[in-house]
Amino acid sequence: MSEGPTPPGAGAAPEDTYTHGHHESVLRSHTWRTVANSAPHLVAHLRPGLDVLDVGCGPGTITADLADRVAPGRVVGLDRAEEVVARAAATCADRPDVEIRVGDVYALPFADGSFDVVHAHQVLQHLSDPVAALVEARRVCRPGGVVAVRDADYSAFAWAPADPDLDAWLALYRAVARSNGAEPDAGPLLCGWARAAGFAEVEVTASAWCFATPEERTWWGELWAERTTSSALAEQAEAAGLATASEREAMADAFRRWAAADDGVFVVPHTEVLARP
Ligand SMILES: C[S@@+](CC[C@H](N)C(=O)[O-])C[C@H]1O[C@@H](n2cnc3c(N)ncnc32)[C@H](O)[C@@H]1O
After folding, report:
1. Distance CA 169, CA 154 (A)
2. How many angstroms separate the Cα of 223 from the Cα of each of 111, 169, 191?
3. Could you tell me the sign of the dihedral formed by the alpha carbons of 178, 182, 185, 188, in that order?
4. What InterPro entries does the entry give (predicted)?
5. CA of 260 to the centre of ligand 1 (A)
6. Is the CB of 231 under 6 A from ligand 1?
7. CB of 62 closer than 6 A to ligand 1?
8. Is 0.90 topped by the overall pTM?
9. Each residue's pLDDT expressed in tens, for the chain with a length of 277 residues
10. What are phi and psi of 74, to 5 degrees?
C-alpha cells in the first residue's frame, strides 16, 4: 500500500472533540475488545493476505486480532490521538506486519484503493461529519473490497434493575456527546450515512454486548463509575455545566449499586454496516 498524494480533504478536517478521551478507565473498556466481540459482521470476510486499515484503532487490540486473521496481509492501525497510538504500538509490538500511525479519518494518508478492508469500530459516532469520513474510507478501499463500521446506539441501552441515577447518567452522556457535535445514537443511522457517502451496496446487521455475570458487572460498573467521575467525560460535563461533581458521584454510586445487584444486567446494542464501493 503506497503513501498517496495529499488527500482531497486534507487541511479541511473538522477539529472534533472526542467525548471519551483516553483515561485509564476508558482504555480498560477498549482493551477488552476483539474481532469476536466487536466485529462479528467482518469475521466471514477476513482471509489470509488481505490488506486492512483499522481507522480510529484506539489501543489496538482489535487491530492485533485483525492482523492474526489476515496474516501475511498487511494491517495499518491509525488514530488521531498520539497518546493512544503509543498504546496501540505497544499492543502490536511483536507483529512486524502491523503498522501503527497517527492520522485523521477525514484525510487518510493513503492512495486511492490501498486496502481490501477499511474497518472503523465505535468511531463514526464521535465525528461531526461521519459521511465525510465514510467518503474518505471509500476512497482508500479497493474495488471489490469492503468498508466495515459498527456503532452503538446509546438511546437503546437497556439495564436492570431500574435506577434514576443511571437514567441521569445516560442523559448526561448523550448531552455531552451532542455538545461536541457527535451522535451518541449512531447505530441505526449508519445505513443512511453509508448511502449518503455513495456506497453502491450496503448490508446492515445488529448485535449486542451483554454484561450480567458477577465478574462482568464488577468490570463494567467500576469502569463506568470511574469514567463518570474522572475521565474526559467528567471534565467536559463540568466545563459545559451539565453535571456537578456531586451529581456525577451519585451516578458513579448507581453503577456500583448496579454491579452489586445479583439481578444486574446491562445490554449495549450495536448496528453494523458492510459497505461496498
Ligand atoms: C471509541 S474509540 C474506539 C477505539 C477502537 N476502534 C475500539 O473499538 O477499541 C474511538 C477512537 O477514534 C479516535 N478518533 C476520533 N476522531 C478521530 C479522527 N478524526 N481520526 C482518527 N481517529 C479518530 C479516537 O482517538 C479513539 O481512539
Report:
1. 11
2. 39, 14, 31
3. positive
4. Methyltransf_11 (IPR013216), SAM-dependent_MTases_sf (IPR029063)
5. 31
6. no
7. yes
8. yes
9. 444 444 444 446 788 988 888 888 889 989 999 999 999 999 999 999 999 999 999 999 999 999 999 999 999 999 999 999 999 999 999 999 999 999 999 999 999 999 999 999 999 999 999 999 999 999 999 999 999 999 999 999 999 999 999 999 999 999 999 999 999 999 999 999 999 999 989 999 999 999 999 999 999 999 999 999 998 998 999 999 999 999 999 999 999 999 999 999 999 999 999 999 9
10. -95, 140
Q: How far apart are the CA of 137 and the centre of ligand 1, in A?
A: 14
How far apart are alpha carbons 193 and 273 in whole angstroms?
10
Give the start-end residues of each E strand in the chain. Answer: 52-55, 75-79, 98-102, 115-121, 141-152, 158-160, 201-211, 265-276
All three cell numbers of 264: 444486574
- Asked if 34 and 63 count as a contact pair (C-beta separation under 8 A), the reply is no
**Minimum CA distance residue for ligand 1 atom 17:** 80
Residue type, 258: W
What's the grid cell of residue 252? Answer: 458513579
SS3 sequence, 59-107? CCHHHHHHHHHHCCCCEEEEECCHHHHHHHHHHCCCCCCEEEEECECCE
